[in-house]
Amino acid sequence: MLLRIDHVGIACHNLEEKIEFYETTFGLTVVSREVNEEQGVREAMLHVADAPSGASYVQLLEPLHPDTAVGKFLAKRGEGVHHIGYGVADVTQALQDIAAKGIKLIDERPRHGSMGASIAFLHPKDVGGVLTELVETARH
Amino acid sequence: MLLRIDHVGIACHNLEEKIEFYETTFGLTVVSREVNEEQGVREAMLHVADAPSGASYVQLLEPLHPDTAVGKFLAKRGEGVHHIGYGVADVTQALQDIAAKGIKLIDERPRHGSMGASIAFLHPKDVGGVLTELVETARH
Fold first, then answer.
1. Which UniProt keywords apply (chains A, B) (predicted)?
2. Chain B interface, mutation test: which of A1, A25, A70, most B Cβ atoms within 10 Å?
3. Do residue A5 and residue B1 have CB atoms under 8 angstroms apart?
4. Which of A12, A137, B12, B20 has the fewest Cβ atoms within 10 Å of its own Cβ atom?
């Protein structure tokens, strides 16, 4: 079901500072910047690698307001890994298959993610404390 | 410098339960089990994908004792993402380059990691709260 580790989602206080850090320390390159009002984040995708099933990224997330999921995460735990995104071929089918196994979903239906992807989150309570995202890359 | 997301390291209380969960929920397959006394963990590598630069994995980590790094992590934060491992071509060179940028290292020299890899950890304080591992895959 999982095609690749699509991205590591990292919560930070200052997006521009953290982008510069990942660029200068690790040589990564920003390939996309977006504001996602629905998720309450300003974000950047930094390209790590390409693979047959799709690329992989470090995703840096800065909350738009303290009263957002990422804002609350920062207040509670500080900066760090917020979630893991795995690539899937068909996110709707994957959600159905996972729900059928009794795993609690955050998103019953896919929603809009980074770079036009269809994404959905699974509840961390049922995935060993890991906020887990499924990512179906946009077709070009 | 970073060739791929090599693995996501996930801390758990019960390795066998969590292996079964990742196998049945996501269809991953265990390719290696090890006990690493130095790091105080019992672990399993579950294969996610292959790519030109190397494979990627979910690494499940159960502490051997409460008084280990992963044991303390579990006591403080509960189950969840413990660290992120990135593939590099030459871990010794990467450590030198990163140290030269003023990033604090946990490991000044590489040590033994999963499946014969040479690995080193960077200090999360200097990497935005992310415990970051560099992985040079064993040559076969």
1. Isomerase, Metal-binding
2. A25
3. no
4. B20
Mean pLDDT of the A41-65 span: 96
Q: Distance from B95 to chain A by nearest Cα, in Å? A: 11
Which chain B residue is nearest to residue A78, measuring alpha carbons? B129
Q: Which residues pair with B45 in a beta bridge?
A: B32, B59
Mutation test of the interface with chain A: which of B81, B84, B86, B88, choosing the one with the most A Cβ atoms within 10 A? B81
Residue B59 annotated among the catalytic residues of the structure: yes
Interface predicted TM-score (ipTM): 0.96
The residues spanned by each domain of chain A are 4-136
Going by pLDDT thresholds of 50, 70 and 90, the confidence category of residue B140 is: low
**DSSP letters for A9-75:** EEE-S-HHHHHHHHHHHH--EEEEEEEETTTTEEEEEEEEE--TT--EEEEEEEESSSSSHHHHHHH
* Amino acid at the residue B25: T
